[in-house]
Amino acid sequence: MEFNINGRNLSVSDRFREYAEEKVSKIEQLGDKVQRLDAKVTKETNARNAESSMTVELTVLGRGPVVRAEASAADKFAAFDLAYGKLMERLRRARDRRKVHHGRHVPKGVHEATAPLPPASSSIPLHEEASARAAQSSAAPEEEQTGYEIENDVPAGDSPVLIRRKVFPTRPMTLDDAVDNMELVGHDFYLFIDTATGSPSVVYRRRGWTYGVISLDANCDEKSTAQSELLAYRS
């Protein structure tokens, strides 16, 4: 497994590099054909809270889905330990899901899995709830390393607004797989192509352990109202 570590606003010491290399050696035991692990250590020069001045982001890349974890602390060693713990937990969950796919465990039925979940709110449109969720996020999700940028920072006409476009390779996947991938990278939303509809869709986190999904349909009548339905997610 290739291991890359980079520092932003600080230099990475040999002591920290050796510490990180020793800990990440266990990742290959859990990862699905892990090829590379990228670690980014960032020192916030204008951090309001000294307890979160150091941030460590870990990203696992391989033939399986991207797995990502991030944590902040007062020093880089503590931040690394927190991020590493999150990453290992997500890798374990991904491994357990692979066992389900291979038939080693039997997942719960739909009614059993969704019984404790509260119903979706009928008074708040999905697009408004998704926008509110994004506005509450403390920071925009970090761009993954697997995409590529096109015409980076293109001005929007004569305005001072800059538009950054990024394209990601993808394959159609089920809604369940999209939720899994969203959880593995630690984001609040995930863009994917739905195998059930063939449409570009976004799954996003709602309150508690519930999720929402928004899909696009070019053939939909502009005068028609948005259709909502309650879907189930495997356990």
TrEMBL record:
State the compartments where it is located. Answer: Cytoplasm
Question: What NCBIfam families does the record tag this protein with?
Answer: yfiA
Organism, scientific name:
Arthrobacter mobilis
Spell out the Acidic residues composition-biased ranges: 141-152
Q: Which residues form a coiled coil?
A: 20-47
Q: What is this protein called?
A: Ribosome hibernation promoting factor
What CDD domains is this protein classified in? Answer: RaiA (cd00552)
Q: Which UniProt keywords apply?
A: Coiled coil, Cytoplasm, Translation regulation
